[in-house]
Amino acid sequence: MLLQPRLNVKVSQRQVLTPGLVQMVSVLALNKLELKEMINGEMIENPVLEEIEEFSETLDERSGKEGDRERSASEVSAEAERVEKDPFDEIDFGSYFQDYLDPGYRTGSNFEELDKPSFEHFLSKPSTLSDHLHWQLGALALSEPLRVAAELVVGNLNEDGYLTANDEELASALLGEFAEGGAPLTAEGALGLIAEARRVVTQLDPIGVGARDLRECLQLQIEAQRREQVLMLRRRVAARSREADEVEREIAEAETEPSPDAFDVYDTAAFIADQCLPLLQKKDMREVNRLCRRTPEEVQSAVELIRRLDPRPGQRYDQTETRLIEPDVAFLKRGDDYVVVMNEEDLPALRLSQGYRKMLREKKTERDVREYVKERYKSAIQLLRNIEQRKNTIIRTCEVIVRRQTDFLERGVDALRPMMIKEVAEEIGVHPSTVSRAVSNKYVHTTQGVYELRFFFSEAVNGPEGGDLPLPLLKKRVRKLIEEEDPRKPWTDEYLAAELQRQGIQVTRRTVAKYREDMHIPSTHQRRIR
């Protein structure tokens, strides 16, 4: 039987998000800084949108402007009667978007009393690890092949300063660069150049860059500190104006017989970095002492030296950009009550262009231009609606937070109450996902400091006297118990759970372990100091 093509008609229902709804959802999730960036982009793409310039005006000027607007509106209406009717022309802009069509009058900001961060504390372009290393290479007298190899090594360092490519890969890349330049270079010669380039890079600041792993990184720093100690001894001995042979003899004794003096700690630290890092991570000092064959005091001195080293030397230069947090909303006290104030300072105030609206009324406007302006007007109106909807949703959500968390605003974190997103959504009559987007990545200025809006939402556990205890307070109590324990005999998760239960908080050992891990607190064995 041969298959034949057929046409089948099928009726089905499915949910489709309109472009306006998609934009509304995305606008709601933006914080103030992101919204400002989005508005600036829309003003560039949509000529119908205009920014209202900030200025003040008298009541007489405003009343005169309203009279001119009424006369202008009557003239436009009379002219529109002579133009072919269009459904778009019947939109009542004055009723729904008068604030956007009006040149506007902006009152003083209610957010002025909040402190703002100083831009003097931020760099326009911070120096990177690569910049710092290339600057040092430029100050060294290196041959051209060695300089190319060193720059290749620097280019393969990760953000921590570790070398991620092996010697064979680097040598192959080096051969490729010299092949393009026409200079002869053998595979053996390329490997030799890479080895020499690595030696040069590992001597640069910060010490430890160019290492393959943590073990090598620590050993490079230990050896650098040893050399610095030797140089200090040379200067100190030379300053005493002794005979040259006596100076050399004392230095030789210091380098070859380290046990009586401070040089012994470097040997022990190098051995621990090479052989005992996994044991040191587990804080198994008994096994470390056995392998080092040193006294506990000597091993502890070496461990303290290692703790002062930098396991990620590249991070001090390749730091992430400082994140500027600007509150989207503030909870301000007015008398005995708290009010919600949106932070709209520095946000562009938008209006619809009167000039483009006039083009829609003019009979001489070309059809293509008219259609384009219509689409731009629809897009602008939708954006203004979504921005207004975002503001209303955030304010309604924050008003519920203020009513439920008044004790927190008065007394601090200890008075925080459990609150679920679902409860707030039901109270303001929206879907929980809407509330989730309204509080996502947004911050609020309160009398207790600046907090993320999500901070106020937390689950509850059975607390003392039958009340509910929010999770932030439970984690705070777990951390406090761990901070008060004896480091030589740290408490187990089971003991912590029993101690909380004696305080009236019903939690299990697994719950305590989960919250301890969330706070990045080590286990009992790792916290123990022997």
Descriptive account of the structure:
This protein has three domains: 17-117 and 325-457, no CATH class; 138-316, no CATH class; 460-527, Arc Repressor Mutant, subunit A, CATH 1.10.10. 54% of the residues lie in helices and 6% in strands. It has 24 helices and eight strands. It has a four-stranded mixed β-sheet with strand order 3-2-5-6. A two-stranded antiparallel sheet has the order 1-4. The chain has a two-stranded antiparallel ribbon with strand order 7-8.
Number of domains: 3
Gyration radius, rounded: 35 Å
Describe the largest sheet: 4 strands, mixed
User: Which band does the percent of strand residues land in?
Assistant: 5-15%
Number of helices: 24
Mean pLDDT: 76
Described by the principal axes of the CA atoms, the overall outline is extended
Helix content: 40-55%
Low-pLDDT segments? 55-63, 79-84, 101-110, 112-124, 256-263
The neighbouring-strand order within the major sheet is 3-2-5-6
Distance between the termini: 83 Å
Which structural class matches the secondary elements?
Answer: alpha+beta
Would you count the extended β strands for me? 8
